[in-house]
Design brief:
Layout: H1 2-13, E1 25-31, H2 50-57, E2 60-62, E3 65-66, H3 72-81, H4 85-88, H5 104-110, E4 114-120, E5 132-136, E6 146-149, E7 153-156, H6 161-175, E8 182-187, H7 233-236, H8 239-243, H9 256-260, H10 265-285, H11 291-326, E9 333-339, H12 358-361, E10 365-368, E11 377-379, E12 383-384, H13 388-395, H14 410-413, E13 425-429, E14 441-445, E15 449-454, E16 459-464, H15 482-498
Parallel strand pairs: 1-8, 1-9, 2-11, 3-12, 4-5, 4-8
Antiparallel strand pairs: 2-10, 5-6, 6-7, 9-10, 13-14, 14-15, 15-16
Helix pairs in contact: 5-13, 6-11
Protein name: Arylsulfatase
GO molecular function, one term: arylsulfatase activity
EC number: 3.1.6.1
C-alpha cells in the first residue's frame, strides 16, 4: 500500500509537466571567478583540467557564453531568475537578494523536482525554492569552513571547502528520493580570492607559468578610464591575504595571520612549508629587484595559487562524474559546469573582474547529457547567464515564464539551430563605488564588435574583436568604423529599451 501511494504521489507531481519523456536530473556545478583561460578545454596554455576536458569531450562547450554583470551576487541572481540585474534587484554585492521572486529552483520544485544547493550562496538572504540547502556564510573559508544547514543551523566542519562541498553533494544524492528527478546545485568557493589551495594541490605549478603579453599594459590606446581602477597585481595585491607571505611591509587589515587563522596547526604547517623557500628568497632579494621583477614574482605566486585552486575543483568534478557513473545516474543526468564570471589572470596587469572586457565578461559553460547532447560539440552562439534558468526549465519539460529575459539554448546544446538566435547581447555593471573602483558602464557585444559607455565619465570605447581580440586599441570615433559605430549605438539603445533598463545615465 505504501508503495502504491508513493507511485500515486509521484504521478500527481508530474501533472504540470509537458511531454512524456523521462525527465532528466540536473547537476549544476558552479565556481567563483574561473576564467576560461584557465581551462584546457578552452585552450589554456597555463594549466590542464582533465575532468573538465572529459566533460567537454562528452558534451558541448559554449565558446561565447557571457555574464550580464561581472560580479558575484548579481551573476548568481541572474542564474536563478533569468533576469538582468536591474529587474531582479541584485545590481551589486551589497544588496540582499529578494528570495520571494520567481526563480528556476522554485519552478522546478513545482514541477515535481527535488531541489538542493550546497556550497557558496553569497546572496545574504536564505535560499528559497530548495528542499535542502547547506551553504557557506558570505564568502566562506577555504579551510575548516562553516556551513549553514537549512534545519541544523551553522556548524564548522574540518577539512577543505572544495572537498567538503563535493562530499555534501554526494551525501545528498545518496539520501534523495530515487523515484523523483532532482536539481542539485554544487557551488564551490574556489577559485575566489584569497586563493588558498588544498593540501593535495600545494605541490603543483612550481615551474614558471606563461606571462600574458599585456601584463605591463599602459592603457595608452583607450579612453583612460582604466587608470582609475584598484586591481593591479603590482600595486593592489595584498602580501598576506593574496600572496601567502608574512611580509614586513604588509599594513593591511587583511594580514597573513587573519588569512590562515581558520587552519588547524597541522594544516598551517603543511601550507607554510609549501611556500617557505620561495618566501625566504623574496625577503632576501626584494631590495635588489626592479618593479618589473617584483610584479612578475607576484604574478607567479598569484597564478600558481589560483591554478592550484582550479586543480582542486577539477579533481572534485572528477569525483562527481565518477559518482554519477557508479550510481547509474549518468545516462539521464544533465551535468553543467559554469562560473559566475571570468577573471583577469594578469591580462592588462590585473586581477579581479567587473569590466566588460573579454577576460571577465566571458564565462565557461560546458554541458553533458549522454545521448541528447552531441559529444565533443563546440558552439559559437551568443548566450548569457540569464539563459540558464530557461534552458533548465525547458530540459525538464516545465513552462518558461515569458517574463524572463533569457531564452532556452536547449536546441543549441542538442546541436540544432538556435530557437531564438541572438545577434547582440547586453551588459551593465553599476557597482563603481565598491572594491577595485571600476567605473560603471554598460555595453553591447556582437559576434565581431563591442561598444561600451562609461557613463560616469561620459566616455565610449569600441573594439573590433576580430582584429583586436585583446582589446588594446579603441576605435570609437574612427571614421573607418562610422557605420559599425552607428549600428552598435542603435543596438545598445534598443537593448536598454527591450529590457526596460532605466538605471545608469542614458546614452547622450
Amino acid at each position: 500500500m505504501k508503495r502504491f501511494l508513493s507511485v500515486l504521489i509521484c504521478l500527481m507531481l508530474l501533472s504540470p509537466v509537458r511531454g512524456q519523456e523521462r525527465r532528466p536530473n540536473i547537476v549544476f556545478v558552479f565556481t567563483d571567478d574561473h576564467a576560461t583561460s584557465a581551462i584546457s578545454a578552452y585552450g589554456s596554455t597555463r594549466n590542464v583540467t582533465p575532468n573538465l576536458d572529459r566533460l567537454a569531450r562528452e558534451g558541448v562547450l559554449m565558446e561565447n557564453f557571457f555574464c550580464t554583470n561581472s560580479i558575484c551576487a548579481p551573476s548568481r541572481a541572474a542564474i536563478l531568475t533569468g533576469l538582468h540585474s536591474h529587474a531582479n534587484g541584485q545590481m551589486t554585492n551589497q544588496q540582499t537578494f529578494d528570495g520571494s521572486q520567481t526563480t528556476m529552483p522554485k519552478l522546478l520544485r513545482e514541477a515535481g523536482y527535488q531541489t538542493a544547493i550546497v556550497g557558496k550562496w553569497h546572496l545574504k538572504s536564505d535560499p528559497t525554492g530548495f528542499d535542502h540547502w547547506e551553504v557557506l556564510p558570505g564568502q566562506g573559508r577555504y579551510y575548516n569552513p562553516e556551513y549553514i544547514h537549512h534545519e541544523e543551523g551553522r556548524r564548522r566542519v574540518e577539512g577543505y571547502s572544495t572537498d567538503l562541498t563535493t562530499e555534501k553533494a554526494m551525501a545528498w544524492m545518496d539520501g534523495r528520493d530515487a523515484e523523483r528527478p532532482f536539481l542539485l546545485m554544487v557551488h564551490y568557493k574556489a577559485p575566489h580570492r584569497s586563493w588558498q589551495p588544498g593540501p593535495q594541490e600545494l605541490h603543483l605549478y612550481r615551474d614558471p607559468i606563461p606571462v600574458p603579453p599585456t601584463l605591463e599594459d599602459d592603457y595608452s590606446r583607450r579612453s583612460g578610464v582604466q587608470r582609475v581602477q584598484e586591481m593591479e597585481i603590482a600595486r593592489h595585491m595584498l602580501w598576506g591575504h593574496d600572496l601567502a607571505i608574512d611580509h614586513p611591509d604588509d599594513d593591511s587589515r587583511f594580514t597573513y595571520e587573519a588569512t590562515v587563522r581558520s587552519m588547524t596547526p597541522e594544516q598551517r604547517a603543511t601550507y607554510e612549508t609549501a611556500f617557505a623557500e620561495e618566501n625566504a628568497w623574496l625577503i632576501e632579494n626584494e631590495k635588489d629587484m626592479t618593479p618589473s621583477e617584483i610584479l612578475r614574482w607576484k604574478y607567479q605566486r598569484y597564478l600558481g595559487n589560483y591554478l592550484r585552486c582550479v586543480a582542486g575543483v577539477d579533481r572534485n568534478i572528477g569525483r562527481l562524474l565518477d559518482y554519477l557513473q557508479g550510481s547509474g545516474l549518468e545516462e539521464n543526468t544533465i551535468v553543467i559546469y559554469s562560473s559566475d564570471q571570468g577573471f583577469y589572470l594578469g591580462e592588462h596587469g590585473w586581477f579581479d573582474k567587473r569590466w566588460m572586457y573579454e577576460e571577465s565578461f566571458r564565462m565557461p559553460f560546458i554541458a553533458r547529457w549522454p545521448g541528447r547532447f552531441p559529444a565533443g560539440l563546440t558552439r559559437a552562439d551568443l548566450a548569457q547567464n540569464i539563459d540558464v534558468a530557461p534552458t533548465l526549465l525547458d530540459a525538464a519539460g516545465a513552462e518558461v515564464p515569458g517574463s524572463m529575459h533569457g531564452v532556452s539554448i536547449l536546441s543549441v546544446l542538442k546541436g540544432q539551430p538556435a530557437a531564438f538566435p541572438r545577434s547582440s547581447i547586453y551588459y551593465h555593471f553599476s557597482a563603481s563605488e565598491a572594491w577595485h573602483r571600476v567605473p560603471a558602464h554598460y555595453g553591447v557585444r556582437t559576434a565581431t564588435h563591442k561598444l561600451m559607455y562609461f557613463y560616469e565619465h561620459d566616455t565610449f570605447e569600441m573594439y573590433d574583436l576580430s582584429l583586436d581580440p585583446q582589446e588594446m586599441n579603441s576605435v570609437y570615433g574612427d571614421p573607418a568604423y562610422a557605420d559599425v559605430q552607428e549600428d552598435l549605438l542603435y543596438r545598445l539603445q534598443s537593448l536598454r529599451n527591450d529590457f526596460n533598463d532605466t538605471t545608469g545615465e542614458p546614452l547622450p
